Structures are given as C-alpha cells and as structure tokens.
Amino acid sequence: MTIGSVVLAGLLAMAPNWAVVDIPYPDAVGSGEAQTPANAETQVWDALASYARSKSVAPLRRSDIVVTRIDGNKAAARVSRGGKSEVIYLEYTAGEWKILKIE
Hints:
Layout: H1 2-14, H2 40-55, E1 65-71, E2 74-81, E3 84-93, E4 96-102
Antiparallel strand pairs: 1-2, 2-3, 3-4
C-alpha cells in the first residue's frame, strides 16, 4: 500500500508538467465534396460584380455588394443598386462561384 501511495503521489506531482496535445485528423476530402477557396469572399464578390455588369451599364461599387454568408460551398449576398435590393444565392462548383437563385 505504501509503494502504491508513493507512485500515485509522484504521478500527481508530475501531472502539471504533462503536455495536453490534440491529435490532428488527416485532411482527407471525400471524392464528392467540394473545396471552398481560401479567398471565398473575394471570389463571390467577383462573381456578383460580373452578374451586375451584365444587368447594367453603370459601374458597380464594392459597397453595393454585401456578402452576408459563406457556408462551405454555398453563399448568399445582397446587391443594392438604385434603391433596389436583390438577394443572390451562389454555389461553388467546378472551381468557380455560380449563381443559383435571385430573389
């Protein structure tokens, strides 16, 4: 009993010095999953700017586009121009952001 108590006291004395380490998980991606680019907000803005240019001749300002949400390979943004506002939903497929729906 005495040896067990000494060993337990020794382990408890060393416990604050033990490093707490997270085990990293592999960065594996399934074959069907889409990768979201690192600079997704910039790419979403570029896709929306090209859409807005096709709808109007007036130049688009960066303040006219507000990216409200980027969730994986889906995004939503609001484009305000000329007192009119549109909510645009996008999806990242085949290496680029494409417009799915406009409300």
